[in-house]
Amino acid sequence: MKLLTVSALLLASILDISHAFSPSRSVNHRVAPSSVLFAEEPAAFVANAKTIASSVHALSGKTIVVKYGGNAMTTPELAYGFCEDIATLQKLGLRIVVVHGGGPMINKMLEKVGVESRFEGGMRVSTKEVVEVAAMVLCGDVNKGIAGGVVLAGGRALGLSGRDDGLLQCTKLWGGDDGSLDLGNVGQVKYVNTALINDLLDRGITPVIAPIGMGVKGNEDEAVVYNINADVAAGRIAGELKAARVLFLTDIAGVLDKEKKLLEKLSCDEIDGLIKDETITGGMIPKVTYATDAVKLGVQGAFITDGRVPHALLNEILAGGEEGLGSGGGGTVVTL
Known about the structure:
alpha/beta; 8-stranded mixed β-sheet; 4-stranded mixed β-sheet; 11 helices; 14 strands; 21% strand
């Protein structure tokens, strides 16, 4: 069920109360009179409203981790809509954690400063110079832009990196099928400071986390700055928090079959089979792997969602009803 119309009305109602605004554009959040709301398809409106109420009832007080990909940040409108979604879900009583990427922004800065980089197995090979640039981009404009955007939309957010208060502590990740490929300072998360995250959530604040981590405290590499794949970080954080949902917002529609049709729901075993028969190939393999890892760590459902769709986050969270299986048209849900 798609709830874009009703979700938009709900969004407008909540943000009107909070007097949210954007410095870059004027947003009119006036609430439509009830006569207008019911002017077309009143039965559909009532059905959608019941679905939203069921979703909120099921998820109120629960934790949701959102991986916000750089390729889903392609326009100011999409970026502001994402921040509106976060603010709205906060006001509905959900505990939201954001882990963001920023690959396109990192690429631009690397090119600007003349630092070369390459990818191996979906991971950016991270020399010390590459990590310095990645940290500058992710922990700077990208991180603070998202946190600030949520605040401007009427919510509460605090930008952090994985180095702050030992939030994400890592060991060196080796790549390749045999684990012998040197990826440089790419980190594998070994410890998540869930106490810090939960403390912020208890205060009604959304942590906005840049995936730049440190070595494990007490280890020889404690002072090393690690670049962490944002999908990996989001999945691990969701697992450690035992989150109700983890959503990977990206620039793809979801998992497709060999006829290019969307597969709306998959189990971990079904994904293994689709990888073996090469239905799932290339860059989709690591995405579904992170989703299945999160589910196996205790997350109730993982979503691979097209972040290019306006208000994709709000639609997927609110359209699932009591079962919480998403809109049925905005991506793939991964469960045990």
